[in-house]
Amino acid sequence: MRNKKQLLIEQLDQKLVKFQDSAMVLVPTKGWINTIRTTLNMTRDQLGAKLGMTKGAIQKIEEREASGQITINKLKDVGQGLNMKFVYGFVPNDGSIENLISLKSEKLARKIVLRTNQNMKLEDQGIGDEKIDKTIKDLANEIKREVRKSLWD
């Protein structure tokens, strides 16, 4: 039976995979709100009326979105005013949570094994490259299985 952590990782990866294509979409320079509103040929006054706001308040919202200073709740509200659903998520840089953990586990294992081997060499007890590689692989698998908190240090 798979352990609970592995199951959680797989479930999260299944959810996040849906966002992969969205990572390729470039955010318009003036932001989504302005771009969608102008594409729909909707004035700031019209959007403001839907949201119970002034034209100036809509302009500020558009400016805050473009500069990254807007809240998620405000984006949801504006989405409703535009008859759209606001969605957000994260896309792992390495393709999946599984890959992220694998890479971090390998890096941590390599650091631990090479440090230990260096100390052993000083005592004339070092091990060969083949043994080092196997030890790194084994330790990385153990770290990955446990998803140790030290992965994120």
Describe this structure in words.
This protein has 153 residues and is mainly alpha-helical. 63% of the residues lie in helices and 0% in strands. It contains seven helices and no strands. The chain has helices spanning 4-16, 32-39, 44-51, 55-67, 72-81, 97-122, 129-146. Helix 6 packs across helix 7. The longest helix is centred in the C-terminal third of the chain and has 26 residues, at 97-122. It is elongated and about 75 Å long. The two termini are 29 Å apart.
Brief overview:
By secondary structure, the chain is mainly alpha-helical. It has 7 helices and no strands.
Helical residues, percent: 55-70%
Count the E strands.
0
Main sheet summary: none
Backbone shape: elongated
Count of runs of 4 or more consecutive helical residues: 7
> What class do helices, strands and sheet pairing give?
mainly alpha
Distance between the termini: 29 Å
Q: What integer value in Å does the Rg equal? A: 25 Å
**Strand fraction:** under 5%
Order of helices and strands: HHHHHHH
Stretches where pLDDT falls below 50 for ≥5 residues?
Answer: none
**Mean model confidence by pLDDT:** 90
